[in-house]
Amino acid sequence: MRIAVDAMGGDAAPAEIVKGAVAAARYYTDHEMILVGDQDRIHSELSACGATPGNVSVVHASQVVSMNESATVAVRKKIDSSITKSVKLVAEKAADAVVSAGNTGATVAASSLFLGTLEHVKRPGIAVSIPTFHGACMVIDAGANIQCKPAHLMQYGVMASVFCKYVLNIENPRVGLLNIGEEDAKGNELVKETFALLSKTSLNFVGNAEGRDVFDGKFDIVVCEGFVGNVLLKFAEGLSISMLAAFVSEAKKGVLTRLGSWLCKPVRKHLYSRMDYTEYGGVPLLGIDGISIISHGRSDSKTIQNAIREAIQFGKYEVNKHINSELEKANSSLVTVV
């Protein structure tokens, strides 16, 4: 596969992005890494990485979309940005996948505009694997579509199930619908209608999920509309960061707490590794006619390398082909969406 990597996207770009792409190129020698961005800065970072692998190439892009720019405006006006150019390489069949740690909205907008959606997909969705002590729980949608209809949410469940089966190795993923209670009668009209649709599918739909259920191991997938999903994701991220900071702060307050922290170091390292988002690399934008992996803005080289791994797995297991096939089977339970 040929992976277009947005070298200018992310807080640590281009240094960490280039470093991660080079590491991936050295490990995945049968695949090509195409670094897209300011060629002078990219070549400078490549020099710092030592000998450049033969499967790394550079495509110049003169513009950069910053994190605080309007996504649609940036895609329309910055036609030579590293994000837009990376996606266009996929659209033009010069690359097979795109990986970006840049502006998420711009990546979603560019991917949707230039790649379009799969035949049976009504709206693409961002599928985020949230690490928990019981393994990962995939939340979809995490911000691609904030005005959802029941058919969109039902399709999210189908697409995430396909991804979990073929990429995450979960044979029959348990699907839940995010709601304010477990009872069928709870929730607004969107949730109630979605519950009815999901119940008609062949998915392993196990009912409503409350917010705490994301972390308790009851579900492999939790479906929700993008506004709620993004709030849930940012809340979980902020809480975990605050908890870790509080632990470190408390551990420094006295001799006994320092000693206790030192004694617990092996356990702490094990827990950190289980909760480390960098291991997941990035999140797929499911439903587009291509492969688009979105990484965290704070991505380091390890995260980028793992995001590239995910893009390769996505292609290897033909996830899009299986999504189309499963959605075609589920057509009878879809509602018409204008």
Automatic annotation (TrEMBL):
Q: What is its EC number?
A: 2.3.1.274
Compartment(s) = Cytoplasm
Q: Which family does it belong to?
A: Belongs to the PlsX family.
**Any Pfam family hit:** FA_synthesis
Taxonomically, which superkingdom?
Answer: Bacteria
Q: In which pathway does it act?
A: Lipid metabolism; phospholipid metabolism
Example GO CC term: the record gives: cytoplasm
Q: What subunit structure does UniProt give?
A: Homodimer. Probably interacts with PlsY.
What HAMAP family does UniProt report for this protein, alphabetically?
A: PlsX
EC main group: transferase
Q: What is this protein called?
A: Phosphate acyltransferase
- Organism whose genome encodes this protein: Candidatus Scalindua brodae
Q: Which GO terms describe its molecular function?
A: phosphate:acyl-[acyl carrier protein] acyltransferase activity
